[in-house]
Specification:
29% strand, Peptide Deformylase, 3 helices, 187 residues
Length: 187
């Protein structure tokens, strides 16, 4: 029995589904996040936890503040039904991409209107206009510097998640809310 208990502790340490912060007035969601200065064991643990959390939450993106930690880290995962519209070479079907200290370098002048929802605002969705294309840079969870172009759904997710890092919610951009539909997958 002791061995089972120890395995449970090990599993808990390596993989924990975290509760998602919700609400438009939530102070964690409205607080700008601090840059990560070193990729530590705790940062790697948070990345694993975010990967465990995103699946059951049924989302395409997740920012560290959404799981209660105000540091600049996001996760992007593209479901198969949206993979054709990914718009970035870094996106791999079925894999999670962790971006540390992501920043947008340039954006296109062309705007795209797209329906967004948010795991932290589970009751509604709305159309949001954002730049269609962008260039960004970040660190991978291994500490590698990357710079890439993104368009389509990938560019949208990056903008949505970086907004979370800055204490901004997608509802700050909308004038009309719509009730969430159960069969849709939201950012």
């Amino acid at each position: 029995m002791l061995m089972v208990y120890n395995i449970s502790i090990i599993i808990y340490y390596y993989l924990m589904i975290r509760p998602i912060e919700v609400g438009t007035a939530n102070t964690v969601l409205r607080t700008p996040s601090t840059p990560i200065t070193e990729i530590t064991r705790d940062v790697r643990k948070l990345a694993r936890d975010m990967k465990a959390t995103i699946g059951p939450a049924n989302g395409m993106g997740l920012a560290a503040p959404q799981v209660g930690i105000n540091i600049r880290m996001i996760l992007i995962t593209i479901p198969e039904e949206h993979y054709k519209e990914t718009g970035c070479d870094l996106a791999t079907l079925g894999e999670h991409l962790i971006l540390i200290n992501p920043e947008i370098i340039t954006v296109s002048t062309e705007q795209c209107l797209f329906e967004e929802g948010c795991l932290s605002l589970p009751e509604f969705y709305a159309e949001v206009s954002r730049p269609c294309k962008l260039t960004f840079r970040a660190l991978t969870e291994k500490g590698e510097k990357i710079e890439a172009e993104a368009e389509g759904i990938f560019a949208r997710i990056i903008q949505h998640e970086i907004d979370h890092l800055d204490g901004v919610l997608f509802e700050d951009y909308v004038t009309e809310r719509k009730k969430k539909e159960g069969h849709k997958i939201y950012i």
